[in-house]
Design brief:
Layout (H helix, E strand, L loop, with lengths): L3 H13 L6 H13 L1 E7 L7 E3 L2 E3 L1 H13 L2 E7 L5 H10 L11 E6 L2 H5 L4 E10 L1 E6 L17 E4 L3 H12 L5 E4 L2 H9 L5 E5 H11 L4 E3 L12 E8 L3 H17 L1 H8 L11
Parallel strand pairs: 1-4, 1-5, 8-9, 8-10
Antiparallel strand pairs: 2-3, 5-12, 6-12, 7-10, 7-11
Helix pairs in contact: 1-2, 7-8
Length: about 280
């Protein structure tokens, strides 16, 4: 291939694949704008972040993904990612390689832990744009449990948690396993919170966003929330960010600029409030 047009075509194709130094950096964002689409991976059944309501995909992450695409001047293609065994697997399936079941890798993935050690072992992606500080929340039905009491006193009460989650492991193991027989497992944290609003459980341990969102929607006045930390709970909180392919750092830079503008204008806070969640900036932000 010796003609100039052929050379340029081959060069641009290689740049799109990240094979040409210098052009590789610009290719991903340029390609997104040329195609007019930003493919955004969000987790499936992850209320209040991304879930189906009457067939429509809604949620905080869904709205943020749509807002990012709009700011870039393209349309959003929201893709629901089924959680794998680890978030490392999710990054592989959702961002840099694609899933075994035919999931097409996205340009950006939301709801990724913004953590230095986690980022270091996932060098195929760049983790950017921390946009929320999440934590766990214990909530209970008033008159059934004293939310601020020591966990051992919860024995004999119906406790709800998402199966195979940190809240599940905590409730099953705390107080020497004394609460294990009292724990009812649900497929998601949101379903566990719903259980205390409709009388199927006396207390729940879930993420703060899950608790706030469900209680706001159901307008549950008979639910109290613990105001002090649970003893020996493994996580005091964590930052949530986004991931792009390693060769798409210019997309990451653009997204961080958009997020800063959304924070300054109040747009990001408004998205969280839409789902009843109190916006808390990430510590890393």
């Amino acid at each position: 291939m010796h003609d100039r047009r052929g050379f340029l075509s081959a060069t641009l194709a290689a740049a799109a694949l990240g094979l040409v130094p210098g052009l590789a950096e610009a290719a991903p964002l340029t390609r997104i704008k040329a195609l007019g689409v930003l493919r955004v991976a969000v987790y499936k059944d992850n209320r209040p972040w991304s879930w189906r309501n009457d067939g429509k995909l809604i949620g905080i992450d869904a709205d943020i993904g749509t807002a990012l695409a709009k700011a870039l001047g393209v349309r959003a293609d929201l893709a629901e990612l089924i959680a794998d065994e680890s978030v490392d697997d999710d990054l592989r399936n959702g961002v840099w390689k694609g899933g075994l079941l035919g999931f097409q890798a996205a340009d950006i993935m939301l709801h990724v832990p913004f953590d230095r050690a986690f980022a270091a072992r996932n060098d195929q992606v760049a983790i950017v744009g921390p946009y929320f500080r999440e934590s766990f929340q214990f909530a209970c039905v008033k008159g059934e449990i004293d939310c601020n009491a020591p966990p051992a006193s919860f024995r004999g009460h119906r406790l709800a948690a998402e199966i195979d989650s940190i809240p599940d492991f905590y409730l099953m193991g705390t107080a020497g396993g004394a609460l294990a027989k009292n724990v009812t497992h649900f497929l998601t944290g949101a379903e566990a919170v719903i259980a205390i609003t409709d009388g199927r459980a006396d207390a729940v341990l879930a993420s703060r966003a899950q608790v706030e969102s469900v209680l706001a929607e159901r307008k549950s006045a008979n639910i109290a929330r613990r105001t002090m930390p649970l003893p020996a709970l493994p996580s005091p909180g964590w930052d949530i960010g986004m991931a792009v392919k390693e060769n798409s750092r210019n997309l990451g830079d653009a997204v961080e600029g958009i997020l800063a503008a959304m924070v300054a204008s109040g747009e990001l806070k408004a998205i969280f409030e839409r789902y009843g969640v109190t916006y808390t900036p990430a510590l890393a932000a």
